[in-house]
Amino acid sequence: MPRLAAVLLCSLVPAAGASLAGDEAADPSPFDGGLVTGFLVEPAGKGPFAGIVFGHWGPGNRTEFLPEAAMYAEAGAVSVLIDYPWVRPDPWRRNQGQGLKEADKDRDSWRHAVVDLRRAFDLLEARPDVDRARLAYVGHSYGAQWGAILTAVDRRMKAPLLFQFARHERSFTEADMNRYYAAASQPKEVRWYSTGHDLNDLRALADRAAWLGPRIGLQPLRPVFEQRLQSLGR
Hints:
single chain, alpha/beta, Rossmann fold, 2 domains, 5-stranded mixed sheet, about 35% helix, about 20% strand, globular
C-alpha cells in the first residue's frame, strides 16, 4: 500500500546577493524562504521509482490530486503535492494581491508558487530511490499555468506535453485555449472533454495516466483502475 506523509519543504529562495545552483540566482528575493506545506506519497518497496510533482488549481490545496497520487504510487511513483503560499496555514501563509490594485503582490505570490514547485523537484532528486530521468509534472488550472513556466525554466521534466481542455469552460474561450496550445513547443498533444473547469471526466484521469505511464516508466495502470472500479460496487 502507498505511504502518505505530511512534509514541510524549505522555499530555499536566495536572499539579496546570494545565489543557488542553476538559474535561480540574480535579483533580491521577494520571498522569505519560509516553509511549504505538502504531502509526500511513497510506494512500497525500494525503487527505483518515477517522481511526480502536482500543482493544484488556484483556490484548491494539496489534497486535489491525492487520490491520483495514491494510484500512481501503486504503479511505482513517488509524488509531492504542495500548497501554494495563499492556501497554507499560518505562519506560512502569504496572501495574493487584490487584482490590479496589488499587481506586484500577485506577481510575487505566483513566482513564489513556481519556485516552491521547483523545490519539490529538488526533493525528489535528492531521494536515492527516485530516478532523475523519470520525472513529470501534473497541474490543473493555476497549476497548468505554472506548468507552462516550469517547462520554460526547468528541464527536469521528461514527459512530453499533454493539454487537457474542457469544452464547457467558463473562464476561457475555445480560441483562448487553442492559442495557449499553439504557443507550446513540441512534442505535445491536446485532448478535449465534455466537462467544465473542474475537468472531472473520468476519461481525463484515464488519458493522463495512459500518457504518463510509458513515458516515465510506471507499472501497468489498468489493474489499478480496474481494482478501484470494482470497489465502487461494494
